[in-house]
């Protein structure tokens, strides 16, 4: 039996060079965070881009970089600045990302982006061919690499290939606006198994395959030449134990061991014991509904002024894709909104919004999760949303209220949360009030269900289920071909 090879745009470590030495820095982001435990638990290989362009890589350090990566079970697909511009910032993040998140008006259909996307996908496919054997299992991740499965299939007709999409697959009506829609579908259909977070994304994909390619689709099987491609949903879990253990450790820390952030949070609690903390954590991305959330918070404070000085919104926005104009505009909009609301509503003792625009170390994330009475996550579209799951996992005493957008994939599995429509300010204001007044017994009852489910369906189980389905599919597929 061969090895398992994971392929994603970014490797689970980023390399940075300072004064001739190489530092490996863990990546932030759902995929990196989720798959890390799977990869480190096997002797498999992870192929992806290191984060350094050719131009940023001193030739004399190239060997050391490859060595450092190999020590981490990784192999680099070398990309230059122009390729990153067209493939990553271009087609991936200015065409596919907005389109698949229903921001049609942000989607740019540039032929140059598309050509670079194809060329870079070919580079990834070539790296796979070079570093794998026929009996290896290939697991390709996400929207940056949708052409890779078919590119590998052409050279390795019998290799087992799985693909998982971490973002939503949009409805046919949205997807069909993409000029290269058939090529994207054909690229994905090089896989044996295609996985999505939810049943809805799966249906949308099947509908596009049927209507755009005219292929036979029966239930969740697609018939293409002499192959059957399976499509299924696999809602991604988190490393539940890691978050749980970190929260337990956190609660046992002595005063001296507390972080600066935790001290600030504790001081806040001590000075205003009846003020509740509401938390949001997202990459700074328009799909996450950050600006709307701030507006909804203002709406809440106006509708229920008795909560002024009684609540504080702690907003962590992690810098992301800051080369893309849309993200720069959003950053400006959020800065202005936070400034205006804090300027208008603050009192001597109270600032309504604490806003952090940075990436925080993992321990600080735990400080925030464990100190907040409410997590309020309002994506306008989100493939899954792992932050919602992480918040619940860290609530060791089972208190805390999760308010979650219906538009997040995770909402399908987290019915015990308070689900809201992020466009409905009235509903959100009332839900915030409900959350602030929810009896502790009710919080515990809701979170018990959620925690049990998250513990059971953790990220390792998610990966195992996908791999099991991929293996099963291959066994059935081979017998189909040989009949
Ligand atoms: C994509 C899809 C899907 C965040 N800030 C910090 C930090 N994080 C970590 C969180 C969490 C991850 O990043 C974010 O995951 P999400 O799922 O919320 O969102 P995306 O980055 O958009 O991920 C998403 C996911 O892929 C998986 O399929 O759920 O829908 O868009 O794990 O903890 N970690 C640290 N510091 C931070 O400041 N250390």
UniProtKB/TrEMBL annotation:
Transmembrane segments: none annotated. It comes from the Bacteria. GO terms for molecular function: alpha,alpha-trehalose-phosphate synthase (UDP-forming) activity; trehalose-phosphatase activity. Signal peptide: none annotated. One of its GO terms (cellular component) is cytosol. One of its GO terms (biological process) is trehalose biosynthetic process. In the C-terminal section; belongs to the trehalose phosphatase family. Belongs to the glycosyltransferase 20 family. This is Bifunctional alpha,alpha-trehalose-phosphate synthase (UDP-forming)/trehalose-phosphatase. It comes from Flagellimonas sediminis.
């Amino acid at each position: 039996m061969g090895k398992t090879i994971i392929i994603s745009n970014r490797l689970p470590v980023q390399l940075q060079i300072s004064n001739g030495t190489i530092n490996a820095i863990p990546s932030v982001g759902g995929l990196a965070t989720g798959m890390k435990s799977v990869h480190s638990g096997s002797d498999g290989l992870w192929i992806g881009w290191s984060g350094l362009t050719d131009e940023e890589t001193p030739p004399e350090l190239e060997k050391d970089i490859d060595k450092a990566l190999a020590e981490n079970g990784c192999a680099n697909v070398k990309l230059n600045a122009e390729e990153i511009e067209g493939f990553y910032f271009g087609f991936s993040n200015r065409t596919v990302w907005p389109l698949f998140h229903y921001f049609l008006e942000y989607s740019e259909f540039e032929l140059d982006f598309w050509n670079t996307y194809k060329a870079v996908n070919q580079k990834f496919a070539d790296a796979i061919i070079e570093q794998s054997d026929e009996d290896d299992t290939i697991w390709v991740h996400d929207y940056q690499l949708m052409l890779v499965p078919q590119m590998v299939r052409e050279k390795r007709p019998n290799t087992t290939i799985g693909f998982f999409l971490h973002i939503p697959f949009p409805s046919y009506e949205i997807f069909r606006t993409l000029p290269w829609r058939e090529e994207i579908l054909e690229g994905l259909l090089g896989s044996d198994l295609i996985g999505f977070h939810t049943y809805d994304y799966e249906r949308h994909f099947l509908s596009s395959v049927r209507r755009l390619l005219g292929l036979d689709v029966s239930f969740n099987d697609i018939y293409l030449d002499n192959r059957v491609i399976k499509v299924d949903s696999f809602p991604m879990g988190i490393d539940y134990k890691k978050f749980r253990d970190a929260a337990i450790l956190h609660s046992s820390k002595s005063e001296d061991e507390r972080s600066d952030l935790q001290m600030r949070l504790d001081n806040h609690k001590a000075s205003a014991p009846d003020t509740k903390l509401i938390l949001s954590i997202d990459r700074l991305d328009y799909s996450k509904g950050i600006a709307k959330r701030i507006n909804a918070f203002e709406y809440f404070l106006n509708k229920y002024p008795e909560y002024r000085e009684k609540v504080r919104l702690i907003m962590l926005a992690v810098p992301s894709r800051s080369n893309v104009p849309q993200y720069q505009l959003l950053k400006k909009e959020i800065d202005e909104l936070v400034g205006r609301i804090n300027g208008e509503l603050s009192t001597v003792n109270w600032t309504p919004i604490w806003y952090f625009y940075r990436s925080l170390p993992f321990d600080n994330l735990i400080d925030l999760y464990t100190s907040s009475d409410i997590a309020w996550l309002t994506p306008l579209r989100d493939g899954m949303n792992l932050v919602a799951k992480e918040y619940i996992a860290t609530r060791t005493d089972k208190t805390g209220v999760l308010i979650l957008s219906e538009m997040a994939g995770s909402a399908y599995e987290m019915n015990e949360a308070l689900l809201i429509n992020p466009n409905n300010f009235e509903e959100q204001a009332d839900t915030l009030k409900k959350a602030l007044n929810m009896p502790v017994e009710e919080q515990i009852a809701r979170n018990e269900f959620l925690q049990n489910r998250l513990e059971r369906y953790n990220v390792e189980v998610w990966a195992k289920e996908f791999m099991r389905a991929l293996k099963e599919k291959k066994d059935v597929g081979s017998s189909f071909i040989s009949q």
